[in-house]
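Supplementary Text 2. Reproducibility record for the structural model of the 176-residue chain.

All settings were left at their defaults, and a single model was retained for analysis rather than an ensemble. We include the record here because the model underlies the residue-level annotations in Supplementary Table 4.
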Amino acid sequence: MQDSAFVELFEKQYPRVVAYARRRLGSMPDAEDCAAEVFRLAWELDGLPSTGWLFVTARNIVYAVNRSHHRLSDLCSRIAVEEGTRITPEDLGVLEAMDCLSDTDREILMAYYWDDLSGAQCAQLMGCSSAAVWVRLHRARQALKTILEKQGIGARHIAPDSGLHTSDPAWQGETS
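Retained model, structure tokens:
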């Protein structure tokens, strides 16, 4: 495949693939990740893919992302039932908000709050420095807070047993 032909295809179709994925995923970061994966796969083909191929591939990736998000919610619900924890509507809202986060944001929040990993352990898990963990954690909390506010669930409504505690110094941006 000629590089210039691929660049032309990318420049013409990337915005359309992102828009397609965004309408189905509801999140710009997820849509951009989806489009990046579509074009990564397209690059690996022997020839130049058709526009139809790009959108079929995007659809398949969107389905995979949605399945992943639903599995996370189902898993959290099953764990709560097994532990005898009562799930409130606010808890479901938090789970739905977590589903809207990027994979990286969701992973850092779950590792730190649910799995109770230290900053150093999160750094090892995420393959980054300890300083980067605190930056990622701050950004992930801000993204979660924004989603919760859009849902009408303020951070004050997060259940104490969810692992996300608003009184936690890390929630407030302190990294002690």
